[in-house]
Amino acid sequence: MGIEYEGDKLDEILRLSRENNKMLHAQRRNAFFGGIFKLIMWVVLFIIPLYLYMQYVAPMMASMLETYEQIQGTSASAQAQFGKMNEYLQQFQGLYGGGQQQ
Questions:
Q1: What pLDDT is recorded for position 3?
Q2: For the whole model, what pTM was predicted?
Q3: How many DSSP H helices and E strands does the chain contain?
Q4: Cβ partners under 8 Å of residue 99, min gap 6
């Protein structure tokens, strides 16, 4: 009877070992696929914003900067013209008495 008891115990240990082995393999597989999934998620989180910036925001920003530079150029041109107009006005005032009455 003692030998049967040992055999039943060994069978139970073998069954538990195989069950444990299956669970460990499943955990490793889940950890591996989970790691791959996390890597893909991080790549997506970094790539998608860069792609959207390159496709949509960068061209708009370039257009806005170009418009801003054109406005600055127009402003500088207008200031130069007003400066010349002020210079011509001073010359005109110098030629005709400066607009003062005597």
A1: 56
A2: 0.48
A3: 2, 0
A4: 93
Asked if residue 93 lies in contact with residue 99, where contact means CB atoms within 8 angstroms, the answer is: yes
Amino acid at 61: M
> Can you give the residue ranges of every domain in the chain?
2-95
Q: Give the separation between CA 17 and CA 23, rounded to whole angstroms.
A: 10
| CA 58/CA 65 separation, integer angstroms | 10
Given this model, what pLDDT does residue 1 score? 44
Stretch (H or E) spanning 98:
none
**100 in helix, strand or coil?**
coil
Q: Which of 12, 31, 33 is nearest to 23 (CA)?
A: 31
Residues of the chain predicted below pLDDT 50: 1, 102
Tokens of 30: 């889940």
pLDDT digits (tens, 9 = 90+) for 52-66: 999 998 899 999 999
Residue 45: the pLDDT is 94
